[in-house]
Amino acid sequence: MIDTPLKLSSDISLVAGIGPRSKLLYQRLGIHTVGDLLKHLPMRYERHLDEGSIAQADAMVGAEDGSKSAGVIAVRGEIATLRVQPGPRPRVEATLEDETGRVRLVWFNAPWLKQKIHAGSTGLVQGEVKRFRGYLEMVNPKWTPLDGAPERDALDARLRPIYPATEDLASGRIEKSIVAVLPGAIPLVQDPMPESLRALRALAPLGESYRRMHQPVDEDDMRGARRRLAYDELFLLQLGVMLKRWHLRRSAVAKELPLRAAIDERIRRRLPFQLTSDQDRVCAEIAKDLAAGQPMNRLLQGDVGSGKTAVAAYAMLLAAAHGAQAALLAPTEILAEQHVASLSRMLEGSGVRIGLLTGTLKAKERARVVAAAAAGELDWVIGTHALLAEGVHFHDLALVVIDEQHRFGVAQRAVLREKSSREHVARAPHVLVMTATPIPRTLALTVFGDLDVSTIKMAPPGRSPVTTRWVTPQTSTEIYRWLDPQLAAGDRAFIVVPAIDSQNPDSDSALADVTTHLAWLQAGPLHGRRLGAMHGRLSAEERVHVMERFRSGALDAIVATTVIEVGVDVPEATVIVIEHAERFGLAQLHQLRGRVGRGAKPGTCILIGEPATDEALKRLEIRGPGELVGARQSGLPPFRVADLVRDLDLLRDARRDAADLVQQDPLLEKPEHALLKRKLLHSYGEALGLADVG
Ligand code: ADP
Ligand code: MG
Questions:
Q1: Rg (CA), the chain
Q2: In terms of pTM, does the model score above 0.70?
Q3: Residues 326, 328, 329, 333: is their CA dihedral positive or negative?
Q4: Minimum mean pLDDT among 133-137, 270-274, 405-409, 429-433: which range?
Q5: d(C-alpha 153, C-alpha 155), whole Å
């Protein structure tokens, strides 16, 4: 047999006990190499009962016949007697003794045991202990022989790792493979962390930390290892984000878009209202960034309905005034379509040419828009993630606005940066990211660490309060009867349901769906009202058509899925009814509720659902989006170990250390940083677009 030296990149079939069949099972868990196996960390640990004497076990079992120990007990001793009871269900019966007492052991259907156990064998038994006719008894206990074996290895009284597993590949089997591979694999782990940092933060060596995660002696041991691995993750991401920022600041050139008084005046004349002082301030911050030759990277935070679109329009008009292109990236097609509709109205009579690029465009239309964007024949391109597709390029893209950032992360921004211009490859666009979701400071620091932040706090004037009511499904019909005369009087409503149609096998048939609900309303409580359907399976033309009819008042209400959740702006809509409200998250409900109360009349939001706790309602009223954006939504690979809530202190340290390192060695050229650089490029090179670092 050829003895191939083990490498971390070796295929797992090299691990003892992993054959071609189990290899497939491991692959399903994303484990392909020895290194993957090493990085498959326990999700938790179980503490097995410590070993005790037989007298202690006796004390743990009640006095009456039939009473049992509360859990598994481990007892060590010597086999005093052993016999096999023949019969249809052969039984091995034994007694085990230590200095303090004796316990009866019974095994059913285990005739092979008599090969292994003899009178005089010593071993460890683990199992439930019960009282049977006055004796202590264990039925089918686990037997571990101790004869000659080192004591430590036999003990189960330790933290046992529990691994993410599948039905066909249990945690115990994974543990066996890991135990088999650890002695060979640990010495192969190279530690990318420079010695000085390891000393500064008292970090255990990397290989040793992996060993301790898999085989911790105790909880402190495991916690120390976890801290090391979490630090690595946090530090690496910080380093990536900071290096990116450093390089952008230093090397990236952006088109200068200075704001002159005449331009400012012309822009304001186009906007359909006067900007609030908050909007004014934010526009000034943006204009200052845009005037500089370095690319802007700014996050605009403002609650639902705070008027972020007008700020985006201001910036995009400024780009247009300089003859440069701007792109607006929206999270949904319906929102992209709405932006095109409202911005087109604003642009009437101007020379600004606007185009829409979404995934459902017909091939011919798409090709036309793509060609026009590349040729510079469009000034503004509004679209969805279709803007990020390969083959989409611009002639001179100076500004990118990303609406509702929680759907778009660092990675997408990097993609857009690449597309700005074929002639000026070194030039990067200014980027404005907008979000209604308050981003927690920790996450802002971590994932959006490369952004400056502006905030709109005050809502535009003429904003009306929204009353929220939570009602039970039994009163649903009453709600629509209450709504009917209001619609008759010219008010407009959104009615939100969770599914499109219950014929869809994926959907839960107990839920209200657009098709059935609309038919029911039409035949029942909203008879005679003009209702439209809105959901993601409509074609783009159908959607635009429905929204236009709703906007103009040709429809009284639309029955919709959550496609209307983000950004939809119809100031005449006063009521939103949400069916099965209990199925939506607070952030979603907050967004949905933000669809009303945008005009002169007060809004009403009716949540129909199983009675919610007062607590939930209060949270919705007071805090707004109770759920904050998660790291998952950032578009970056998730952390395996680090936890942004638990590891906040560690994050601060990692940030400081990453900043110091970037100062010291921004190209990671020093030999002691070579490994770190490799690991960084491997983990984040693509997601962060770190090509210029590497
Ligand atoms: P969001 O921040 O949620 O994107 P929008 O930009 O959609 O908010 O604005 C919400 C509503 O407020 C829109 O109907 C918009 O026309 C209106 N609006 C925005 N700014 C002003 C303003 N300065 N004065 C009056 N109405 C405004
Ligand atoms: Mg918006």
A1: 33
A2: no
A3: negative
A4: 405-409
A5: 6
